[in-house]
Amino acid sequence: MDEGSVSPTSGTGRTSLFSNSLFSSSPSPSGRRASSSSSHYGSPSSEKSTSRGAGLFQQTSMALQSFAIESVLAASSAPPRLPVAQNKEPLSLPTTTKNFRGFVQKSGPMFWFQDGVEATLMWQDTSWTLMWMAIWAVVSIYPWLLLLAPSTILSVILVMTHRARYQDNMTHNIVRMEVPKSPASKSRPSVEKVPTPSPAEVLAYSTTFPTSTGEGVVQPPLTPNPPHEGTVKYYENLRDIQNMMRMIIDGYDLLAPTVPYLNWSSYSRSLHILQLSLLTTVLMFFVAPYVPYRLVLLIGGEGAFILTHPWTKPAIEGLMKRVDSSREGRKIMRIAKEGGHKLREWIEQDRLDDYVVERGYRNVEMFENERYLPAKRAASSSGVVGGWSGHNLQMGERRPWTKGPDGWSSDDVDVLPGSKIDISRQVAMQLEPGWEWVPGDDWRIDWGGSWSAVGVDNQGYVYTDASWQKPASYPYGHGNGVPDYPPSIFDVEGHADDNAQVDEDDAESEARSTLPPLSAGVVDHDPKMKCETRRRRWLRRAVRTAA
């Protein structure tokens, strides 16, 4: 049997997980296939013929697969990526199998280093992490110490390999050496009862007998020993490779949304990014000489350790809950949200073509309405889903999409149960004569929430009770660290005046709702109160038609 399919722990031969795949197609050191290892069963001639037939069949199938893959690549009209591509080895299934097996066997040091970095950043050993924080602080203050890193790493490797080969026999000699003791140490136990010498004793021994350390019992030197196929370490490397592929996929998905900003799918947006990058380059040319790099390295490195501390995330979450539950914190968050909304609106308006601004434009609004239904109750009903959904709206109340916050809509859109409710179903609604949609502009969420005196949440929703009253910018009564009651008129004191001022300033551009803002009322803070409905506003620009 192939040695790769034998478990070192059990002591008995067992079939590898890949024994029936391409990974077990390589011959064993004895020159025979794994299938021919039990040659003492049956006649030798029949076993040899069977082994030869199986080997010939595998070789033929692999050759045909390789030929098919090479034919597909040769028929492709895509040009080579680089001139050196013609010097690369062509795609072959046996080569891929061989290289993958070797990569699994020899990727252990890479994952060992990765685990060490993650363990350090995750504070699995506090003293170890604190040591590296101190090292980084010294290096950030004296960056020239980085030149010592290669020789330091080499010295550490030599010391570790020396300790692995030569056992320590200094301790036994040190504890038996007659070292002068101080009066304070006379009350300690005898030398034979102390298993580990003190640093003072080690120093005294090294200065008294500088050449008598000895080498101890000599062990075999450390040599590379990749794990064989079928061992536990082999499957650990295979598991790490699987997780590494997942990390690459997640990283790709994280960066993929930035592609539309860089591929000129929107000319004005990509042009603004190019202008901003050029301006930043010019500014950094003059600012870079005055940047305190040592301070930046110190704060950045130590901040990475602090952010990954187990106490940091709960502390930040508790602080955010405290900010959300206090009126001052909500006011600060509202100001920051309105500032971000105004910046986003300014960027969106700057993207508009000149003829849109010259003719004049306005925002057409649509409201998305949803109702909450518990999962258990939804399971016993037909046509509804658990949680927030427009399918849970009751008969006779507002539609999933309406033209006003009061639920009025001139377009009755029937949505079948289970189908997705999308605002794209409303893009065909008719505009007034003399207006048309701005080309390239789509429906967008009103993140600012100026139509509501209580504000909106991070998704643009305003939460209300079962009768669409008592609004709040948070789902009260649902837990998750938010208040269990809607805000009263005193909780949003001054907010209505700010919205009125905003509406007055934007009246000329007709960018706000035609209805008065959704105001809060005086409510009794009933702990049993729970929001059951919510709504948010969508906007889309319409421009006057050419005369």
| Structural class computed from helices and strand pairing | alpha+beta
C-alpha-based Rg, rounded: 36 Å
- How many strand elements? 7
Q: What is the H/E string? A: HHHHHHHHHHHHHEHEEEEEHE
Largest sheet: 7 strands, antiparallel
Cα(first) to Cα(last) distance is: 87 Å
Low-confidence stretches: 1-44, 410-421, 424-428, 494-516
Helix content: 40-55%
Q: What is the number of helices?
A: 15
Shape: extended
On the 0 to 100 scale, the average pLDDT is 74
How much of the residues is beta strand, in percent? 5-15%
Describe the protein's topology:
Layout (H helix, E strand, L loop, with lengths): L43 H32 L17 H14 L1 H14 L4 H16 L7 H17 L4 H7 L22 H10 L23 H24 L11 H21 L5 H15 L4 H14 L1 H24 L3 H6 L1 E13 L1 H5 L7 E3 L11 E2 L32 E3 L6 E2 L16 E3 L30 H11 L27 E12 L3
Antiparallel strand pairs: 1-2, 1-3, 1-7, 4-7, 5-7, 6-7
Helix pairs in contact: 4-10, 11-12
Would you write up a description of this structure?
The chain is α+β, with helices and mostly antiparallel strands and 547 residues long. It has a domain at 348-544. The protein has 15 helices and seven strands. The chain is extended. The chain starts with 43 loop residues before the first helix and ends with a strand. Residues 1-44, 410-421, 424-428 and 494-516 have low confidence and may be disordered. It is found in: Membrane. Residues 1-15 have a biased composition (Polar residues). The chain crosses the membrane at residues 130-160, 271-291.
